[in-house]
Design a protein that fits this description.
The chain is mainly β. The chain contains one helix and 32 strands. It has a single domain, classed as Methylamine Dehydrogenase, Chain H (7 Propeller). The longest helix is centred in the C-terminal third of the chain and has 6 residues.
Amino acid sequence: MAVAGLLVACGDSGRADSASATAPTTVATSIGSLTLPPETTMTDPTQGGSMSASEGTDGTVGQTEGATGDPPTTTNGSMSGPTTNGGPKFDLGVTPDGGMGCGGDMDIDESFIWIPATSDGLVSKINTRTMVEEARYLTGPSGGTESVSRTAVSGDGRFVVVNARGTGRSTAVAANIADCIDFNGDGQITTSTSVADIKPWGTDECVVWTLVHANWSGQYVEGPRGITWTIGDYDKATCTYKNQKVWLGFGALQAGSANMVRLDGATGVMEQSMEAVAWNGSGYAPYGGALDPLGNAWFTGLRGELARVNANENPITLTRIPQPANIQSYGMTVDRNGNPWLAGCSGPVSTYDVATNQWISVAGTNACHRGMAIDHDDHAWVASNSPCGLVEIDVPTRTLVAQHTLAQCSTPIGVSVDVDGFVWLVDQAGWAWKIDPLNVPAMQNIPVAGDHYVYSDMTGGQLKSVTPPPG
């Protein structure tokens, strides 16, 4: 699949509910009292309840002898314990390209969706083409107390980073054996090979790094949430992306402040930290994150403000944009023109037009929306809880296309688009839907054990939609 998404001019046709221009600022802006219930009152699970970290592990697969301790850990920007250079890379005699072709066309030969099990501290790796769950990985030592939520996949599909709200932890997992690390030096990679084969924490060598954020406040509500990768630099010689970074947000030790930090995607080492004083997000950490075509990371506050990390400026700056109170932002994404889209819960689906500084809401979409994503044909897909279903929106015209019913519907949460253009909708109650945008009623169901609370780019599709193909 060729990557779509060159930066183009943004037109004004077909706008619904156009708001007056709102000027961005680098000064914190108070939006007033936000009284609607936050995340935890809307079936958000496990605020500290512990579950067994070994549940589902059969203990019968060998290869773990001698593997001890945590994966590589970052503390205050320095590596401690094993690092990505602490053990030999597993050499299969192939380029660790995650299936990338070498013609500069970024055709992907494999595709995964990574779904967190919030109730268990796990993340599931599911092949989007075969609809087989191929592996499960612990993302921390504390089981359900980790409270994993947002997952973000690199643009080449080779890595996922999982954020744990309950412990302030972020953990990276490699999708391919070639990118895993033989930490114990036994000449083989010890890793999960099936749903039942969950390795004890610290022994799965495809868990390539983990860290607890040093400046995290220690509060569940301020644990890391919003997250996005940068695309990195394409290396034609190896058909891989180098220098990939991760931007994510969490509540800082400084009362009322939020940190947006940039990590090295390969090691987890912190490279940049931006502090947003008096962060407006209903008391929560930056809630959603996504990248724009210029490489800027956008973050949203829960029913609060919108912020853009201007990553190409030197020094890097932070632009903060007040949000009209009626929008009530929850999930978010960014389109190929660089405009953020926000799914309101007790509010409409809206976009912020960066060219005109206008907030524009889509008529007919007032509901409790959750996660959202934009497909290859510029249609936005939004999970809805009230009513229960899936909302489809035409992005260029900012108009409602349809409100789709689901064959089974409990609490739709996360939405992502895979490399083939299929829409994935994750239900918190324990399953996911694979949906053909051209034939929604023919949706396919896959059960995924656990409770799933996720709003982010579970497939890497958002990055592909805003990134030009490598040349």
